[in-house]
Known about the structure:
Layout lengths: L16 E3 L14 E3 L1 E4 L5 E6 L5 E8 L13 H9 L10 H8 L3 E6 L4 E8 L3 H13 L7 H20 L6 H9 L14 H6 L2 H11 L5 E7 L3 H12 L22 E7 L6 E8 L7 H12 L5 H9 L7 E6 L4 E8 L6 H18 L3 H18 L3 H15 L4 H10 L3 H11 L6 E7 L11 E2 L50 E4 L5 E6 L5 E9 L12 H9 L8 H10 L3 E6 L3 E9 L3 H13 L5 H18 L3 H14 L13 H5 L3 H11 L5 E7 L3 H7 L1 H6 L21 E5 L5 E11 L6 H12 L5 H9 L3 E8 L6 E10 L3 H13 L1 H4 L2 H14 L7 H13 L6 H10 L3 H11 L6 E6 L1 H8 L8 E3 L12
Parallel strand pairs: 1-2, 4-8, 9-13, 9-14, 16-20, 21-25, 21-26
Antiparallel strand pairs: 3-4, 5-7, 5-8, 6-7, 10-12, 10-13, 11-12, 15-16, 17-19, 17-20, 18-19, 22-24, 22-25, 23-24
Amino acid sequence: xxxxxxxxxxxxxxxxxxxxxxxxxxxxxxxxxxxxxxxxxxxxxxxxxxxxxxxxxxxxxxxxxxxxxxxxxxxxxxxxxxxxxxxxxxxxxxxxxxxxxxxxxxxxxxxxxxxxxxxxxxxxxxxxxxxxxxxxxxxxxxxxxxxxxxxxxxxxxxxxxxxxxxxxxxxxxxxxxxxxxxxxxxxxxxxxxxxxxxxxxxxxxxxxxxxxxxxxxxxxxxxxxxxxxxxxxxxxxxxxxxxxxxxxxxxxxxxxxxxxxxxxxxxxxxxxxxxxxxxxxxxxxxxxxxxxxxxxxxxxxxxxxxxxxxxxxxxxxxxxxxxxxxxxxxxxxxxxxxxxxxxxxxxxxxxxxxxxxxxxxxxxxxxxxxxxxxxxxxxxxxxxxxxxxxxxxxxxxxxxxxxxxxxxxxxxxxxxxxxxxxxxxxxxxxxxxxxxxxxxxxxxxxxxxxxxxxxxxxxxxxxxxxxxxxxxxxxxxxxxxxxxxxxxxxxxxxxxxxxxxxxxxxxxxxxxxxxxxxxxxxxxxxxxxxxxxxxxxxxxxxxxxxxxxxxxxxxxxxxxxxxxxxxxxxxxxxxxxxxxxxxxxxxxxxxxxxxxxxxxxxxxxxxxxxxxxxxxxxxxxxxxxxxxxxxxxxxxxxxxxxxxxxxxxxxxxxxxxxxxxxxxxxxxxxxxxxxxxxxxxxxxxxxxxxxxxxxxxxxxxxxxxxxxxxxxxxxxxxxxxxxxxxxxxxxxxxxxxxxxxxxxxxxxxxxxxxxxxxxxxxxxxxxxxxxxxxxxxxxxxxxxxxxxxxxxxxxxxxxxxxxxxxxxxxxxxxxxxxxxxxxxxxxxxxxxxxxxxxxxxxxxxxxxxxxxxxxxxxxxxxxxxxxxxxxxxxxxxxxxxxxxxxxxxxxxxxxxxxxxxxxxxxxxxxxxxxxxxxxxxxxxxxxxxxxxxxxxxxxxxxxxxxxxxx
Length: 950
């Protein structure tokens, strides 16, 4: 897995404090914020950090092991990540497979991640399962190695290989990171290879390798444990000592010293990408390691070069030369070294030589013109908001505490990082530009679509990348769980059997207030004082459903253009005004609504809302910006043609809704429909459909009802209602039940499988019941699809099923990506699991479903975003204010017969169709043996090939 979602807040100007004796405080003006923690070390060397947060009855546990891919040996690349996978399988005192299966059934979530410098395991659970998580986590850390078998080893190899195929081999630009690492870091440097590693190295892993890795790195002395949430500090200390105290310390693991690199020449490489449709140029300069004093100025430099419309790279590449829809630059520092990256994914057929010349011009402009005080002020204001967003959940707090403790030796390092960032001056930024970028050597990659080498930078050398050959025979890679290991159980002083649940946590739905404005807009709010932030949005019914079939994408393009300035502000001026408030404002179109959303510090709520009002009521309709956005959209649509998952998703929608329904087309439109859209179309949509009579305002955060109403008074007076009639569409009269469709992506290492049928609307009385009924089949890692296709068979990295949410009749769908030669058996497994689901659904499944969903509700509404979603659900689907309690009561009262009726009505396999996107040369003949007749071939746009009519 990629690096976990640490919110590394090294770029903060606030004086946030982590104190061992203070309580958490905040004011509506956001002047004070402190998070208390307590740290202690067990006799075995395990460093433990505790943070109490009783705002929700949940607990987050994060364990960081200080070993990543930088500790691997030649010939065993990818091993740290592979070992992370192995650690989730078995341990001596936890039932086989429980780690992945029972935590979701307890209402929790769990995962892990590996990056160059470390590995993390983490869970968030209702507080009644806290002791159980301590049992599982401690057993994984201290008592898993004896349970590893050859069969488990071989099965997990297939899972990890599938992950690599999905993330790297079957994805556009998937090999770019590997090319860069090989040429930026010399052979033998710990960053010379990728975290995921190579397939031959993964296949070569042995049981002895696993045991050696565990013995060397997985000791308590090489780890940090963080527990955050609704805990009693004294009791938690005792629990930690009990469960983790006996774990072996392990050998001393010496810390690696920084190993920054210096290039003696610029290296230019090109690669023909089988999946890419757009040429991409990257320049990577070596910089400094994490926690180095220059990291903070480099981070700001990245923002200054490309992070705004005033940035030289944006102005040159996007506005003036019109070579790409966007560009990015950023510094990425790791434990041993750092990289400064400039990336441009250009328009189709753009010559990357031209892009490189334009980049040189942009860097020269930056050197000459520098930047204003306002630009530096904007970046620091944005980082202030990022600070609070980054610690707004207990899991993110746990991540931050764990990372800074393990890698900086100080859980409260964020305080110093804030000071260092706040101290960055214009002179510091120009100094690091001169020291690390100006005139310095770099690695440059030209990744171009297959057959378009002429687009690469002149005189670039071809990059060598090992690529897997597709094997047609699935039997050669068949795996299973095998028998459990036979071993002598480790003796412990404590009883390591499964502990009981604690007291059942009481879920308390947040208090909701409502109001309305004279212009017809409804208001919904939730007050929360956990952090000095406010999240809000205005949701306007309509969106994509008001597009025409011929000009699909108008609503989407209109919302993009409305963010490009106002009648009184240029695009750059609007962006700067938002940035100086440290706010985020975005606008987008969904299938059934248009949303303009904001996130800001509570002290800046009125000012942020004033900008939203200006955006909404005073659009600029800039012709030049319209042409730029339209071209950028066409570039993105072209790029989408390379992604097998996107191809499958778009084709499925076309099949499920038919040619006459607007939902058969994507909200962004197609290359054909977008080409005909004019600026007048956007204006007509705005004048005809944007009305407060279809709008709802939702707000969650540190702002109360009276303040919200007062802030909205101006908008209410200026935004006048109009009559808007929402359209209805004819659903297809004939389904594709029992058919199978195939789309060829030559050379695909995986097959993307979709299967489904139309089910019901979110406003249907059975909507909740169907969602409940799907949990056992496809609800995450505990679902039967995941457990069978990944855990038992090793065919995939993930599999699941869900029911989409919309007022229109929405589909039930099963989705997975499997290794190419497992396409047919995977189809057969899906057919069997869905076809026999009703017959095999038991009383035990009823109880598991209820416990899983009811307990998950304790952690489902923690963040401001989750609270905002409650309000969106109420207004969008006419739900009662207490719908959370109503839904739970409905679930509690469901019987086995109720579940079976819903399954029989909506999850009938005979009514489903199947879609496979994969390599025709090796898979089509196998798919034709599935038993659904000969596969109907489609092109990548979902159109029929040949004479067969859909």
